[in-house]
Amino acid sequence: MSQIAQTVRGRIALGAAVAVAVMFLTLWSTPATAGDAFLRAGVIFSPRDIELEGRWRIGFGSDYPMNLAETIYVGFELQTSVFRQGVADVARTATLFPANGFVNVKYKSGNLARRVRPYGGGGVGLITTFILLSGANVWKRDLGFHVVGGVELGRLSVELQLQRPFSSEATLVNQFESNMSYALYAGFAW
């Protein structure tokens, strides 16, 4: 595939992700149907072949109830971080900027004891990494999925997440030597 075609496909995918996020924010922004917004920070604990500075992530998004019992939710999540990593062949350092976007479906149980709410679900989306290196900036991207499970304790949220690109040759996309990553997030929901 030519470089121009890849660039066009990448811009279309990014535009589609932004359009979905804007759609969720505008269509369900009325108080009667407002979703659960969240902001989480996390650490990637597998794979372990990266330094500590590259292990953190921040994510935000919103979940919108799709049924009257408010147990089925559809939403979006955006994740990012910024870190530097040495380049193996040369004495330069690259700046890596992962930027992932997912459309999610979650099942949240009824309010147990009014404060504890376990949930689970999954999503599909774009797993990307911008690699900034003088003279050779690259945008690696692939479609992927993630599976999530967690618990909301009042406004506090704790989540375990498994993330993987669909392509088995996409190891550069998630900047690790493994296709699968596991992360633990904690944050707030409102």
Number of domains: 1
Round the mean pLDDT to the nearest integer and report it. 79
- Morphology: globular
Topology pattern, helix = H, strand = E:
HEEEEEEEEE
Defining traits:
single chain; 190 residues; mainly beta; Porin; eight-stranded antiparallel beta barrel; 9 strands; 13% helix; globular
Q: Would you mind describing this structure in some detail?
A:
This protein is mainly beta and 190 residues long. It has one domain (3-189): Porin (Beta Barrel), CATH 2.40.160. It contains one helix and nine strands. It has an eight-stranded antiparallel barrel with strand order 1-2-3-5-6-7-8-9. It starts with a helix and ends with a strand.
In terms of topology, how is this protein built?
Elements: H1 3-27, E1 36-46, E2 56-65, E3 72-80, E4 83-86, E5 93-108, E6 116-132, E7 138-153, E8 156-165, E9 181-189
Antiparallel strand pairs: 1-2, 1-9, 2-3, 3-5, 4-5, 5-6, 6-7, 7-8, 8-9
Tell me briefly what this model is.
13% of the residues lie in helices and 54% in strands. It is mostly beta strands and 190 residues long. It has a single domain (3-189), classed as Porin (Beta Barrel), CATH 2.40.160.20.
